[in-house]
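Data availability (excerpt). The following record was deposited with the supplementary files.
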Amino acid sequence: MSETASFVDPVFLARFGLTRINAVDYFLHPLNPFRTSAKTSNEVLNMQGIGIGTLMAWGTSTRPGPLTPEQGEEEYNAALAGLTGEQYELLPLTNIEGMTPQQLAALFTIRHVHRTSPSQIKVLGIYYILEGVIYKSPTVRALMKAHVARTLEGLAGACDALSVCARYDPTTGYLWNFEPPEEDGEEGDDETFYGVQERKRRRRRRVLDNRRPGERRTAEEEEGIRASEAIDRILSRLSNSEVVVKGKQPR
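Predicted structure:
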């Protein structure tokens, strides 16, 4: 099933609404493609007339009703813990930064587990219901894949933009021209200006390179040349990569 699949039943929502009392019953809808085909402990409790709503109204032998919604959920989870097999648990409501209380009230998290004892469970899946629509929570692999894909897309766009600005000269290596295309009326003056700047840089580089290491005047100049040469090597590899040359994303 696709990771972007979802399920909603407008008839159920229009007739019963959706609260924490009936969120599990809504998830157990026969047409919900996310629910398991096996018989769950939730269905066993439903056949016994045990649900969060009934527990809130009548309570239990040790805790007579009426109960609060939180107490009803505790008793329902305790009843599930006494059974084994596949179960759906309604996880407690937690505060999520950036969400209002109204948005939190419309969010329900369902955990699919296989229970072998009251204290041992194996998580089979996580689902959430947002404003009546059921979604499957993405896996860590899917999240990492999406983040890497977005990162590669941004890097590919950056390389495409940089490849247009790169200029190579045999004497100076790679140069960058980030200026936008000039208008026809001003092209000559600007080209002359930038040409002068590049020639100045070329002459300075030749003078520094022709000196012996001991003849260079300052350590800053030597460090600048080493850094410039390292940058040129990096840019050379970048310009020859498939991302820049062919627009392909690395596998």
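Summary of structural features: The beta strands are 6-7, 85-90, 107-117, 120-130, 133-136, 166-169, 173-176.
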